[in-house]
Design brief:
about 375 residues, Histone deacetylase domain-containing protein, about 15% strand, histone deacetylase activity, His_deacetylse_dom_sf, 12 helices, HDACs, Ureohydrolase_dom_sf, two-stranded antiparallel sheet, alpha/beta
């Protein structure tokens, strides 16, 4: 693997800049954050793969059984996207004119990355894409998500690389539960879904410990920080990955668990995001069947100022670097009270461990 480029990231931001002209205020905030994050990634020296606007949409949205099932919904989004005022994909998933092409680019960006990893062009990578996807179901959008980028990528891997990819693991540390991803795979023993999220956040009544099928939900209490998240990685996520023995690991990478995010109530620092990335990369490398195959896919994160530092910390960890991009607020995050693992947080982890059958046996 030493001969490979250690990391790449797929960016659709510059394309979004061309087509997102008249947008709702929230979309403009997301676009601004995306711009800053792309700049931070480039500063680390990571290799950039661009995804061009003229890539046909059918390339991104065809070829898997999941997208075939999605076809009526996809066609509906395509039609509404032509309207001057756009349309509504579902709960908190309004979109503007031209959104279909943007959503296809988001899916295509993730597929381009997994192809690059599978071809050994790179050892791992980060898909910096918008819109996010982990709330989207096959037939309806939700929570700023139109198409479920990670779910489509998992199905794509299983279908396009059947001799190499028998099982896929998805780890989601976005502050909100990845309900769409769970629903897509809870009856599929080829896919393990692990969600680390804030309890009782969006979507309400979603992400309980008693997850269905091949799901491990870790609903951490509000106020959880470095101690809780690192303990979650060490005691639940990494052991579950080793037990499942996936051939590929996908990460739904949301930075809205940061202590500055307006849509979450957690206390995670950029440093902690970097630590989690290192743990996940080490797990991918240590699991023989996985052979280091790892792809991060961008999800949420709504602090215009702080998201770039969180993203840069992840990229640095994947590159084996540290401290290239200085976080000017790291001292404040470290100084926040109760950053260590608290008893009520530990109790949640103990309950998860006791209920997760994967952690009680070697593998399914």
């Amino acid at each position: 693997m030493d001969a490979l480029s250690p990391i790449t990231f797929v960016s659709t931001f510059h394309n979004l800049n061309q087509v997102m002209v008249e947008r709702q205020p929230l979309e403009r905030i997301i676009l601004f954050t995306q711009s800053s994050l792309a700049a931070a990634f480039e500063f680390t020296g990571a290799n950039v793969i661009g995804v061009n606007c003229d890539v046909p949409s059918d390339i991104a949205m065809s070829g898997t059984s999941w997208t075939t099932y999605m076809r009526p919904y996809v066609e509906s989004i395509q039609e509404k996207s032509l309207l001057p005022n756009g349309g509504d994909a579902g709960d908190w998933a309004q979109f503007s004119q031209g959104a279909y092409e943007i959503a296809c680019l988001s899916v295509g960006g993730v597929l381009a990355l997994v192809d690059a990893v599978m071809s050994r062009q790179v050892s791992c990578g980060y898909a910096l894409v918008r819109p996010p996807g982990h709330h989207a179901l096959p037939d309806i959008g939700m929570g700023f998500c139109i198409f479920n980028n990670v779910a489509i990528a998992a199905y794509y891997l299983l279908q396009e690389y059947p001799s190499k990819i028998r099982k896929v693991a998805i780890v989601d540390y976005d502050v909100h539960h990845g309900n769409g991803t769970q629903a897509s795979f809870e009856a599929d023993d080829r896919v393990l879904f692990i969600s680390v999220h804030q309890d009782n956040n969006y979507p309400l009544n979603s992400g309980r410990i008693e997850g269905e099928g091949y799901t491990i939900n870790i609903p951490l209490p509000a106020g959880s920080g470095t101690g809780a998240y690192n303990s979650t990685m060490d005691r639940v996520v990494v052991p579950a990955l080793h037990a499942f023995e996936p051939d590929f690991i996908l990460i739904s990478s949301g930075f809205d668990a940061s202590y500055m995010d307006p849509l979450g109530n957690m206390m995670v620092s950029s440093e902690c995001f970097g630590q989690m990335a290192r743990a996940l990369k080490a797990a991918a490398s240590a699991i023989p069947s996985c052979n280091g195959r790892l792809a991060f896919c961008h999800e949420g994160g709504y602090s215009e100022f702080y998201v770039p530092f969180c993203g840069a910390a992840v990229i640095e960890s994947l590159l084996g670097m540290e401290g290239t991009v200085k976080d000017p607020l790291l001292y404040e995050a470290r100084a926040r009270g109760n950053q260590s693992l608290q008893p009520h947080q530990d109790a949640v982890l103990e309950q998860v461990i006791a209920s997760a059958k994967l952690l009680q046996q070697k593998k399914f």
